[in-house]
Amino acid sequence: MATGASTEIDRRSKQRTCLEVHTAFIRGVGANRIYAGQMAVLGRSSVGPIIQQMWNQEKDHLKKFSELMVAYRVRPTVLLPFWNVAGFVLGAGSALLGKKGAMACTVAVEESISEHYNNQIRTLVEEDPEIYKELLQVIKQFRDDEREHHDIGIEHDAEATPAYSVLKTAIQLGCKAAIFLSERI
Ligand SMILES: [Fe+2]
């Protein structure tokens, strides 16, 4: 009986881990493509080095989640090519609005990502902080990086973008919809 119960816990925690790793992975792909799009437009401008620095951290996050995808044999969503294109378009599009536009996009996206990380942390802690100890450590550290990116965006006048709150809401709704679909397809 005890073995059966622990097998069930193993199965469920593995399922949970796969789910959270997958979401984090697709989110990471999106973020990377956004920064790639911004760099294509603003790479040589004064904010180029700042965007590059945030992108580098994003690359580290994605690397970690890619490794976990392999370790847990998670198959990525069929919408991955969509994330590649949509992320780049969003990044480049926001950068075409100028430096502040790019930073407004960063603030919107990073706020969503941080919230999403916080939801993951809550779920994992509620289920079993011991079982998910390692994953929690990774997620918490990356969440802090994303908070920093958010703050960098604010420091660089994101809020001074024309129609800032409309833009921010639109981007956040788009991100939510894309993640919702990717978790299911
Ligand atoms: Fe970020």
UniProtKB/TrEMBL annotation:
The record's free-text note on cofactor binding: Binds 2 iron ions per subunit.
Positions contributing to Fe cation 1 binding: E58, H61, E146
Annotated catalysed reactions: a 5-methoxy-2-methyl-3-(all-trans-polyprenyl)benzene-1,4-diol + AH2 + O2 = a 3-demethylubiquinol + A + H2O
Protein's membrane topology: Peripheral membrane protein
Gene3D superfamilies: 1.20.1260.10
Enzyme Commission number(s) of this protein: 1.14.99.60
One GO process term, biological-process aspect: ubiquinone biosynthetic process
Example of a GO MF term: 3-demethoxyubiquinol 3-hydroxylase activity
Stated family: Belongs to the COQ7 family.
Designated name of the protein: 5-demethoxyubiquinone hydroxylase, mitochondrial
